Amino acid sequence: MTVVYVPRDSAALSVGANAVAEAIARIAAETKVQVQIVRNGSRGMLWLEPLVEVETAQGRIAYGPVTEQDVEGLFAAGFLQGGAHALRHGPVESIPYWQKQTRLTFARVGVTDPLSTADNEANGGLVGLKKALAMQPAAIVEEVVLSGLRGRGGAGFPAGIKWRTVLGAPAEQKYIACNADEGDSGTFSDRMVMEGDPYMLLEGMVIAGLAVGATEGYIYLRSEYPDARVVLTAAIARARAAGWIGDSVLGSGRKFAVHLRIGAGAYLCGEETAMLESLEGKRGMVRPKPPLPAISGLWGKPTVINNVMTLASVPWILQHGGAAYAAHGVGRSKGTLPFQLAGNVKHGGLVEVPFGLTLRELLYDFGGGTASGRPIRAVQVGGPLGAYLPASRFDVPLDYEAFAAAGGMIGHGGLVVFDDTVDMSRMARYAMEFCAIESCGKCTPCRIGSTRGVEVIDKITAGTQRDQQVVLLRDLCDTMANASLCAMGGLTPMPVLSALNHFPEDFARS
């Protein structure tokens, strides 16, 4: 029986993967060919989706992008034996986009059936958890400290330091809260993990629980991820049935329960304290700090809050050691990060590489330039609150400190590409308007500042007292950056000022 892989990832589904899988099953039945269809995760080469893979003696042969109408021709070309066809790319591992990556966290994504417990164990699953069960909590924490793993949600705070704080906080009950409210523009790595390798996330959460003494974990999933919700729900049930989570993790007598909670569509709930408020059934609004969530978090108890990518990195670290993870990357930016290429880019998708690569390498060696064929004028890195960077910044290495020194932030690793037709004054206005819409309203600088910011930018572009309005805009941004309660208002000035500083001509066209 020939095994054929058709992704169940949201990106593949959006371009007809289900219809392709159904067509393969139908034609196989009609021609009396034995085929097993496995719905895997995406390899991350999104311009090739749906990417169909066939298991052959030469390895897994890739064909894509495959439409429902292509399937009959693929059968005629003998694709089940790896036959020649216009859509054939050869062995997946030989595709340059894939070949040039360093897949640590994403090693299984796109390779396995995401819901198969057998597939998971056959491909290295649970090795890290079994090692953690044989270690003292402090030793687990120190392994994560040694790895240099920093929070992948955007702030880049050392994960091991946060865990160490929760471990040392006295309390009868502690929690692990997984922030899966991936709302930044151009980001989809969390979603790909949850849809393509959910057991890796669950394993990371259990290890975190063992490390700090937490017995319950919550996944806060954004409502806009219905496919991830389906996969996670099934994965949690299967992991519980297999004894990977529940009252006795792998028969150890150690308890760790996992609960899935769905958000209500608020971008702000990606901020950790607003997420806690929502988890507790309240309106998602930012909490003042201190106290830090590590001391008083969910229901006032010590809580580790990490995003999906941070927790999903932990099993590899426990399996191979913190030092092996820290061997990748540069400076204080250790390990790998899955960068996500979106916007006007020829080869959009996910690229996992060690820190230290440059934007230019990502944009051209992987991304292939713009989809429009026009020059790249600007790239926004780090979501809607990240800076718009011009070509003069494309050779800055992608590590937290170097990037911050260049006026940007890596954030969640999302890149949105714009060609030379973009109007950067409109993008600056969009950033302010986004803040005005998504602000929780708790603090005046964010609530009022963003609304006034939109008005001031409109006056600038209309030519109304332009010089005075530019001074006012800069002053307003300074107030928002230094007086806002959280990063929503505090970081909104970054895209606005970057557009104003790097592309001033776009504000003076009228």
Question: Can you put this structure into words, describing what you see?
Answer:
The radius of gyration is 24 Å and the shape is globular. By secondary structure, the protein is an alpha/beta fold. The N and C termini lie far apart (about 65 Å). The protein has 21 helices and 16 strands. A five-stranded mixed sheet has the order 2-1-3-4-5, with helices on one face. Strands 13-12-16-14-15 form a five-stranded mixed sheet. Strands 8-7-6-9 form a four-stranded parallel sheet, with helices on both faces. The protein folds into four domains: about 100 residues, 3-Layer(aba) Sandwich (Glutaredoxin), CATH 3.40.30.10; about 210 residues, NADH-ubiquinone oxidoreductase 51kDa subunit (Rossmann fold, 3-Layer(aba) Sandwich); about 90 residues, Ubiquitin-like (UB roll) (Roll), CATH 3.10.20; about 80 residues, Up-down Bundle (de novo design (two linked rop proteins)), CATH 1.20.1440.230.
**How many separate structural domains?**
4
Reading side by side through the largest sheet, how are the strands ordered?
2-1-3-4-5
- Termini separation (Å)? 67 Å
The share of residues in helices is 40-55%
- Indicate the proportion of strand residues: 15-25%
CATH architecture of the largest domain: 3-Layer(aba) Sandwich
Q: How many helical elements? A: 21
List low-pLDDT spans. Answer: none
Count the strands? 16
Taking the sheet with the most strands, its summary is:
5 strands, mixed
Outline type: globular
Give average pLDDT, whole number. 95
CATH class of the largest domain: Alpha Beta
Look up the CATH topology of the largest domain: Rossmann fold
Mind telling me the CATH superfamily name of the largest domain? Answer: NADH-ubiquinone oxidoreductase 51kDa subunit
Spatial extent as radius of gyration: 24 Å
- Structure class: alpha/beta
